[in-house]
Amino acid sequence: MVGAPAIRWVVALKSEAKPIIQKLQMLPMKKGMDFPIYSDKNRCHWLIISGVGQSRSAAATNYLHRESDAPPWSAWINIGIAGYGYDSYGVLYLVDKIVSEETNFVAYPGVALATKLPRSELLTVNKPRVDYSEPSLIDMEGYAFYEAAIKFASRELLLLLKVVSDGPKSKVKILTPKKISKLILDNIENILGLVRQLENLSKLEFDRVIPPDICNQIKQKWHFTVSQKHQLNILVRRWTSVFPETKLFQKIKNQNNSKSVISSLSKDLDEYEVDWGKT
Amino acid sequence: MGEDLINTIYFEEDISEHPRTLSILAKFKTARTIPIKRFGEVFNLRNQNFRIQKSKPALILARKHSGHVLQAPGGFGIGSTENFYFSHMYNCVYDCRYCFLQGMFASANYVVFVNFEDFDIQIDRIINQYPKKTVTFFSGYDCDSLALENITGFAAHILQVFRRYPKSLLELRTKSIQVKPLTSMEPIPNCVIAYSLMPEVMSIALDNKTPSIERRIKIISILARQGWKIGLRFDPLIHGKDWQVLYKELIEGVFKVIPQESIHSVSFGPLRFPKAMHRDIFRLYPEEPLFSGPLEQRGSIVAYRQEIENEMTRFCRQTFAKFIPDSIIFQCTPEGQSVGL
Which CATH class is domain B58-340? Predict the structure, then answer.
């Protein structure tokens, strides 16, 4: 079982990814993959380098989901550089609205993270563009990333971050890989601050979605049907929220079969009076 | 509500110039404002995480296009045969673990409908449909009636509407102690300010982000002294250790400070969830002790075992009857009609 937290990064350029790979001490995964993939030693953070453009970003997101066995409590991050009409070279923005230039479709990533970062709309385009008249950040991946990642995670676990790299006064032509890495590196503390919040949310989701470990131990000792397994998961959740988990095995160890385990736990709960003064 | 608690406001472009939109936006100067076409494109999205959203909800300002006033569900009522409800808002600033709003909407964000006048028109139409009857309107079904009053001003608005219809009845259901619009006006005889109550220890465990029961009772007593009619709502009744002692103390405590003549009605009802809603709320909060009590599935409802339910309703009814006449005690029943006792 993949553990928690689970964070998945989708980044277009190697130069954008470099500071993150270094900071999180990620290493490249096996060679011969469709996209370069990196992971930290705990397999909590996985990062894929998608290349530029919407189709690559969508394909890489799907690929990373499969290759990293991303669980439902994974948080997904897209980070990269973007153009912007306002003079804010180097500023990190949190994206809270994405518009696809091609289709005019709109998406709304979640806004539940606590941050003082400036926020902006993002326009995702198909061709590089130096017309900065729109009041939006401009990139070439964001919308496609969102559309792919929302299939795997709730919007509260999707994060899009953009650092302004070009605009009317900062020409895109003079950008170099070194400058791009520096733009990300200069914002790395803010980025990791948000990532820590996402890690906590991912852990909370894990605890909410996955039944306590003890359920597996019980299922190994007695044979449960599929419907009994489901019943057991619910009963163990209810039981452990009011009795100490350490006493659960003690309680049921003398039961003969799955039916009597279920019946024993049900009986406890049926007779239980919540002590509201102690909850 | 502090400005820092709302840092994102979505607003429908269509109502961007509406005076109430402007007035609400002016109260959140540092919030990020995001234009949208229709509130549903944010509120009804799939793949939203209610529990995470609830920790930092956004505000959505919208226009309600239809269904401003709806027939109240069976089991709702405080004496009238014609019962309706309206909601100027979806979702609640509070986070009560038994509340059906946790399983009602995909989103935990607050939607505020700014076109109050369209509610007025519907209310007027319904009242005129029943010229010889007392029609009761409930506010606070999909939200708390007063909790966001300092932002929306809805209660202040709707109370003036009901001043014009003395034969109709309005219930404002709340747990809020934001009662400035009430204390700053003459009481309206056909309006009932209905407070939800439960023993303090249960409320501490279950009524997250709400004012304490003690503070609610203090406010009820102020409103009663001022001349407002009070509704006391013990719904849902919560089971647990020493529940009889706790409910007895609560009920006796309330009637000690609220004069009988101020009480319009008392209603109470057992804890109950439609089956699917119980499943959804349990999935959201599987660690919640409320769901570890002696609950069972009866038909399409999840509730305390029948004998517990009967014992609790019998006990509370008898305790209420020591202080007020049967004619103003109402039991909300899970399966259907409210029962005037």
Answer: alpha beta
Q: Is the peptide bond before B73 cis (omega within 30 degrees of 0)?
A: no
Report the gap between the CA of B174 and the closest CA in chain A (Å). 23
Q: Which of A154, A271, A274 sits opposite B289 (nearest CB)?
A: A274
Specify if A138 maps to a domain.
yes
Whether A139 contacts A99, CB under 8 Å: no
Domain coverage including residue A169: 7-208
H or E element that contains A166:
strand A158-166
pLDDT mean over B39-66: 96
* Domain assignment present for A1: no
Residues A75-117: tens digit of each pLDDT: 999 999 999 998 799 999 999 999 999 999 999 999 999 999 9
Strands A45-49 and A75-83: unpaired
Question: How many Cα atoms occupy the beta-carbon half-sphere of A13 within 13 Å?
Answer: 18
Give the tens place of pLDDT for each residue, B100-122: 899 789 999 999 999 999 999 99
Contacts of A27 (CB under 8 A, 6+ apart): A38, A39, A40, A41
Q: Count of domains in chain A?
A: 2
Nearest CB to B241: which of A96, A154, A273?
A: A273
Same-domain status, A110 and A127: yes
Q: Is B6 on the interface with A (CB under 8 A)?
A: no
Residue of B269, B205, B246, B292 whose CA lies nearest to A271: B292
Q: Which of A153, A177, A208 is the last residue before a domain boundary? A: A208
pLDDT for B315 equals: 98
Its ipTM equals 0.93
Kindly state whether residues A148 and A257 are assigned to the same domain: no
> Do A12 and A108 belong together in one domain?
yes
Q: Which of A74, A99, A111, A232 to mutate to test the interface with B (most CBs of B within 10 A)?
A: A111
Residues A66 and A139 in one domain: yes
Query: What does the pLDDT read at residue B334?
Result: 54
